[in-house]
C-alpha cells in the first residue's frame, strides 16, 4: 500500500513589504501581524513587548540577541553559563 501526502496545501506564502507595515505593538491583531512586527523591529528591541510575550517570540528574541552579540560579549556570557550554545 502506498500513501501519498500533499503537504503543499498546508504551506502559505506571504510577500510583505516591511516598509509599508506601520502597525504599533498595540495594534497587532493576529500571529502574522506579530511576526511581521517582530521581523521589522527585532534589531531595535531591547525588551520584548507584552504583545509578543509568547513562547515562539521569546525564543526568536533570545536568538536574535545572541546573534547580535560581539565575540567578546558572547564569550563572556557563555563562560558565565548564560548561553548554552550559539544558534
Description:
With 87 residues, the protein is mainly α. It has one domain (7-19, 29-79). It is 38% helix and 0% strand. It is built from 3 helices and no strands. The protein has helices spanning 31-41, 55-67, 71-79. The longest helix is centred in the last third of the chain and has 13 residues, at 55-67.
Topology:
Elements: H1 31-41, H2 55-67, H3 71-79
Looking at this protein, list some descriptive labels.
mainly alpha; 38% helix; 3 helices; 87 residues; extended
* Overall shape: extended
Approximately how much beta-strand content do the residues carry? Answer: under 5%
Q: What series of H and E elements makes up the topology?
A: HHH
Number of strands: 0
Total of DSSP H or I helical runs spanning 4+ residues: 3
Radius of gyration from the CA trace? 17 Å
Helix content: 25-40%
Q: Which parts are unreliable, with pLDDT below 50 for 5 consecutive residues or more?
A: none
Amino acid at each position: 500500500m502506498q500513501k501519498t501526502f500533499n503537504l503543499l496545501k498546508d504551506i502559505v506564502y506571504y510577500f510583505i513589504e516591511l516598509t509599508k507595515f506601520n502597525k504599533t505593538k498595540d495594534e497587532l491583531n493576529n500571529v502574522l501581524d506579530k511576526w511581521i512586527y517582530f521581523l521589522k523591529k527585532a534589531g531595535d528591541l531591547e525588551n520584548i513587548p507584552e504583545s509578543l510575550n509568547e513562547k515562539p517570540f521569546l525564543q526568536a528574541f533570545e536568538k536574535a540577541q545572541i546573534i547580535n552579540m560581539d565575540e567578546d560579549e558572547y564569550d563572556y556570557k557563555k563562560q558565565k553559563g548564560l548561553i548554552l550554545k550559539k544558534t
